[in-house]
Amino acid sequence: MSPGKDTSAASPPPGCPMHQANATPAPAPPKPAPPPGCPMHQAATPLNPDNNIPALAQSPFPDQEIPLPTERVISSIPRAKTEDDSKWEYPSPQQFYNALRRKGWETPENAIETMVDIHNWMNEEAWAEVMKWEKEYSGTCCDPKLLRFQGRPQELSPKARIMSLFGAPKPFDRHDWVIDRCGKEVRYVIDYYGGEDDVVNDVPVFHLDVRPALDSVESAMDRLKFGVREAFARFKGEDAQASTKTA
């Protein structure tokens, strides 16, 4: 349509569908189904509300060449909503591999067991950091537990977004953990950063930024207090080093 041209009385050509004003429109062609291995096929798979992932099978993929262990490791992280002292279980290497394949990620099969070890270690470190924050409440709750968690790798946390504007690297992953503080739900945000590899010991290096989400005044005050303590401890350490050098 050209600007300024009057088309209000224009008649469509004889073969145009617009001539068939009262005709029943043809049904839209069906959308093509995604290929069998596409993660889109899993859209209707029920998700576990505690970790936002579906139940993962222990059976190998048809084209898998290396058999992977199916044993699961028990973590040190206490699980909420249980009547006993149950702990969260980590996925087996086979389940971990299945999860990556389900997302459409090509992963070397011979690297899976190492990846699972790193995954488990990072979760243990994250829980240890959570417990540092929870010491503030040891007088009223000595047994916090992990209630549920969710991976949000595509969503930058507000802190990570602000820091990236000043040139800081972006995290490669993010998790939100919700703990049960003796009946009260508290959300923690965990940003995962990669560091320079330890060439001497031939191991990768990771940094975790764990803190309560700013969902309440209480959590905001916790972060303020923790920040002041860290700054004061850093100042004392630098002051002690300076005193040692001048002595």
Explain what this protein looks like in three dimensions.
This protein has 247 residues and is of the alpha+beta class. It contains 4 helices and 6 strands; from the N terminus they run ββααβαβββα. A 4-stranded antiparallel sheet has the order 3-4-5-6. A hairpin with an 8-residue loop joins strand 1 and strand 2 (87-89). Helix 1 crosses helix 2 (112-134). It is globular and about 55 Å long. Mean pLDDT is 81; it is low at 1-21 and 31-44.
Question: What's the structural blueprint in terms of helices and strands?
Answer:
Layout: E1 74-78, E2 87-89, H1 93-102, H2 112-134, E3 145-151, H3 158-165, E4 173-181, E5 184-194, E6 206-212, H4 217-246
Antiparallel strand pairs: 1-2, 3-4, 4-5, 5-6
Helix pairs in contact: 1-2
Subcellular location: Mitochondrion inner membrane
EC number: 4.4.1.17
Function: Lyase that catalyzes the covalent linking of the heme group to the cytochrome C apoprotein to produce the mature functional cytochrome.
